[in-house]
Design goal:
The chain is mainly alpha-helical and about 160 residues long. About 65% of the residues lie in helices and about 0% in strands. The chain has helices at about 5-10, 20-25, 35-45, 50-55, 70-75, 85-105, 115-125, 130-155. Helix 3 (about 35-45) runs antiparallel to helix 8. The chain is globular, with a radius of gyration of 16 Å.
Length: about 160
């Protein structure tokens, strides 16, 4: 496939950040999904802080009722975040706001295999992290999300 096809196929793996796929193109061919994923992760790790923050900020709030990408919507629905009670929704909104005020990017967690209680517990715990701890944690969660997505899209 050409570069445009490649970016179209995997550019969405990192939320609204096709630049990761574009920059990974130069490393073709990939021998496996794992090699593709590790190349894309290396691109993000080696990107400047501005691009890393843009990637983090491209992620939606967990439990949001706003319009989000189809893939994020499915991931969140898979753990019931689309069916939160009024009380739980209020708690998610409050924690998301507190988190964004503190770190200036949304709380990010690979939700596959999680439940709302585990996600809330993580939010409550991680809001106590330092900025650098949380930046690293958020990026590591993005890599997990990308891994799930790569394995879902490429057989």
């Amino acid at each position: 496939m050409n570069k445009e096809e490649f970016v179209s196929k995997v550019g969405w793996v990192f939320e609204h950040s096709p630049w990761v796929a574009t920059m990974s193109w130069d490393c073709l061919p990939f021998k496996s999904r794992e090699e593709l994923l590790q190349t894309m992760v290396a691109v993000v790790k080696n990107a400047d802080r501005t691009l890393q923050l843009a990637l983090l900020r491209a992620h939606p709030d967990l439990g949001t009722r706003l319009k989000i990408s189809e893939v994020s919507q499915k991931e969140q629905a898979g753990v019931g975040l689309d069916k939160l009670s009024t009380k739980d929704y209020g708690e998610f909104v409050s924690l998301n706001q507190r988190y964004v005020e503190q770190f200036e990017f949304p709380f990010i967690m690979a939700v596959k295999g999680q439940n709302k209680d585990a996600i809330l517990a993580a939010m409550k715990e991680r809001v106590g992290n330092t900025y650098e701890q949380e930046l690293l944690t958020a990026l590591n969660e993005v890599y997990k999300i990308a891994g799930f997505r790569v394995y879902d899209v490429i057989q």
